[in-house]
Amino acid sequence: MNESKAAHHLVVSNLTKSFSGSTQTLDVLQDVSLELSAGDSVAIVGPSGSGKSTLLQILGTLDHPNSGTVSINGIDPFELDENALAQFRNQHIGFVFQDHHLLPHLTVLENVLVPALASGKTSKDQVTRGHELIESVGLADRHDHLPGELSGGERERVAIARSLLMNPSLILADEPTGNLDRATAESISELLLELQQASGAILIAVTHSDALASAMKERKELVDGQLV
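^ that's the sequence the OP posted. Answer follows.
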């Protein structure tokens, strides 16, 4: 069941993550803490290899921290069993990737509906919402097109629509404008923020784009594994 807009809340406390190699241990995240509520947006910047994507992976429950806690709407997803965690992720977290990860053999509408397929089939309401989201991202005449028939910017618009299908509490965007030209990147940034604000979700974007980072409510940098 989706939470109300007012309930959207993310609390990250003292998060650490390290990777052990054959000769040494690499500390990627150290004592990272963050608190965001409905409608908040934050850009996370920093050089390549600073741990930005690792942090996003943990917030998306795709990787586990070594220590610390993550609470989304009062629930620590890492306390859930594997099946419950997958369901939680599907219902509460939307992802927008630099490489849109659309399925090439599915239409625009079918790609947007992919998150709903976790339950085995889509409901009439979900199909209706899929159509509405496609129209909201400016692709009203593209419902039946395949990804190969779309431009890069159009494919990223589909990815944004897909991320919003389940009314998530948290939207995680990893370089959402990284593969786009400047004009298209600006329009995608505006669209992402407009739809995020309308939904009341929390938005966290990892980006090298000053334009996108400046458009967010907050900007934080990962320095030596810590958010500053």
